[in-house]
Design goal:
This protein has 489 residues and is an alpha+beta fold. It has 16 helices and 20 strands. The protein has helices at 8-18, 27-30, 54-67, 119-126, 145-151, 158-161, 195-199, 233-245, 258-268, 288-304, 316-332, 352-366, 394-411, 430-433, 436-449, 479-482, and strands at residues 23-24, 47-49, 71-74, 91-94, 101-105, 110-113, 131-132, 168-174, 180-183, 208-215, 217-218, 222-230, 252-257, 278-286, 309-312, 339-342, 345-346, 370-375, 380-381, 383-387. Helix 12 (352-366) packs antiparallel against helix 13 (394-411). The longest helix is centred in the C-terminal third of the chain and has 18 residues, at 394-411. Residues 472-476 have low confidence and may be disordered. The structure holds flavin-adenine dinucleotide. The site of flavin-adenine dinucleotide has 36 residues, from strand 3, helix 5 and strand 10.
């Protein structure tokens, strides 16, 4: 703990706001919060506080702002880019204690939830009304809706149903100055700048979300789930392009390569077809008549592009069995490798075959194995770069391959992240996608919300820029400021 900033008086003032049992200063307990799902980055927070109300969050942030102490919000800590990585000189504000579903308005297809509520519990609460919350990250049993908003999280079914940003229509936030306010009016059509859109995906750098108004979606009348096996990734990739090209929009198209299948088999015995070089999971949902026709069309396209076995789930248990392999794939890789990097990049769907071929070439050239399991319909790759951390130099080699994969995504007109965010992990790659002017322009938005630079600093951007700096003029004050004609803020 930084004694200068976080003396006993500061901890006492937070204890006064939310009770002594909600403030953690014990070094051993603080270590519980030293990382998120990306364990490669660790840092023990100076202090942890667990507020229970929005007013408490606002009061905590005001205390931080008054003393210039940086703060970081944390949901469930499942993030994979180090977004919730704490600061030793700062406060970690843990939102997982604020987990009420405040209201469900079935008639308007809306719910109001607190940020710590887990993603899946929103769908569970909406189910009796025939509704569900569509964004479905694979971590949905644990991750929080507040974290989802901050990361603009996606999931297998976002291909058809959209990402978090498409389902959030109002946000109560605490600004970095400690003001409690609302963005958006709950309709999703408020006039003026789309601040809900700007906030969603801002990775905790524009303030802390304390309430979220989400859209709920009617549970579809029918769902079919197909598993198609191909001998090569190229054939599977061609099937994806043909399905989408035919005008069908499945709820999900997921793909796994031979190494990912091997890992899943070892972990959960998912019994995918033998000898598969690639499997596709295609899920279709909607009115029963449409789903039936589309299922037949997907079967035909898959066969035409080389599928040698196609299975259709006949009931919920068979559907779950098909999904088991895919959902367990990340963790399952631990069965075939002592350590691995989960990469997250995006390419246009049509570039999938070329990019996947190049990834396997990179793997062959470097001797670093790469398992591919990903949201194929979105072109959102999740290469799992495997290494043995007991072999000197292997982790560095894996990190190099991981970076080369991101370069490949950029070369093909894609992105360095599809859903896991930039956080602390990928900030160094951002200048490969954006010019210095682009980055400066983005910082203007950040500075508009957080002129003091205390809200999750050190995340997203490769080099921190003070909010008084004018983009493009890095080392000299603007002449009008220097002469005292105008002020900067
Ligand atoms: C096994 C596994 C599978 C995953 N699958 C997916 C997937 O399919 N799709 C996907 O998109 N992601 C996936 N993720 C990544 C992760 O689950 C998501 O990014 C999720 O949204 C993080 O939520 P969290 O509550 O854990 O947030 P945290 O990790 O606690 O925080 C993430 C970011 O949100 C900020 N934050 C948290 N709460 C708030 C708040 N109330 N206000 C403002 N900022 C806040 C933090 O500062 C941080 O920057 C997966 C992770 C794991 C471990």
């Amino acid at each position: 703990m930084d004694g200068a900033l976080m003396d006993g008086a500061f901890a006492a003032s937070l204890a006064q706001i939310c009770g002594a049992d909600s403030v953690i200063t014990d070094p051993q307990q603080l270590r519980t919060y030293e990382c998120d799902g990306l364990t490669a980055h660790r840092s023990t927070p100076g202090l942890v506080v667990l507020p229970r109300t929005a007013e408490q969050v606002a009061a905590i942030v005001r205390e931080c702002a008054a003393r210039g102490i940086p703060f970081v919000a944390r949901g469930s800590g499942t993030g994979l880019s180090g977004g919730a990585l704490p600061r030793t000189d700062g406060v970690l504000i843990v939102m997982s204690t604020m987990r009420s579903i405040i209201a469900i308005d079935a008639a308007s297809h809306r719910a109001i939830v607190e940020p710590g509520v887990t993603n899946l519990s929103v769908s569970k609460a909406a189910e009796p009304y025939g509704l569900f919350y569509a964004p479905d990250p694979s971590s949905q049993v644990v991750c929080s809706v507040g974290g989802n908003v901050a990361e603009n999280s996606g999931g297998a079914h976002c291909l058809k149903h959209g990402f978090t940003v498409h389902h959030v229509v109002g946000l109560e936030i605490v600004t970095p100055a400690g003001e409690l306010t609302w963005l958006g009016d709950g309709t999703g059509a408020a006039p003026g700048y789309d601040l809900v859109g700007a906030f969603t995906g801002s990775e905790g750098t524009l303030g802390i979300v304390t309430k979220i108004v989400v859209k709920l979606t009617p549970i579809p009348e029918a769902v079919t789930t197909l598993l198609a096996a191909f001998t090569t990734m190229g054939a599977g990739g061609a099937a994806v392009s043909s399905i989408i090209g035919s005008g069908i929009l499945p709820a999900a198209i997921e793909m796994m390569d031979a190494l990912a299948i091997e890992a899943a088999e070892a972990a959960v015995h998912c019994c995918y077809p033998e000898g598969a070089g690639a499997v596709l999971i295609v899920e279709l949902d909607g009115p029963a008549a449409d789903v039936e026709a589309q299922t037949e069309a997907v079967r035909q396209i898959s066969t035409a592009t080389g599928a040698y076995e196609i299975r259709a789930a006949q009931n919920a248990a068979e559907r779950a069995a098909i999904w088991t392999g895919r959902k367990s794939a990340f963790a399952a890789v631990g069965r075939i490798s002592p350590a691995y990097i989960v990469q997250d990049g995006v390419v246009p769907r049509t570039a999938l075959p070329a990019v996947l071929d190049r990834i396997s070439e990179l793997s062959a050239e470097t001797g670093i194995r790469v398992a591919n399991v990903f949201h194929a319909g979105d072109g959102n790759l999740h290469p799992l770069v495997l290494f043995d951390d007991t072999v000197p130099g292997e982790q560095e080699a894996a990190e190099k391959v991981s970076g080369m994969i991101l370069d490949l995504c950029i070369e093909h007109g894609g992105s360095i992240t599809g859903e896991h965010g930039v956080g602390v992990d990928k900030s160094r790659y951002l200048p490969r996608m954006f010019s210095a002017d682009d980055l400066d322009t983005m910082q203007l938005l950040r500075c508009a919300f957080d002129p003091a630079g205390i809200c999750n600093p050190g995340k997203i951007f490769p080099t921190p820029r003070l909010c008084g700096e004018v983009p493009g003029v890095r080392h000299a004050p603007h002449p009008l400021v220097a002469s005292g004609v105008i002020d900067q803020f």
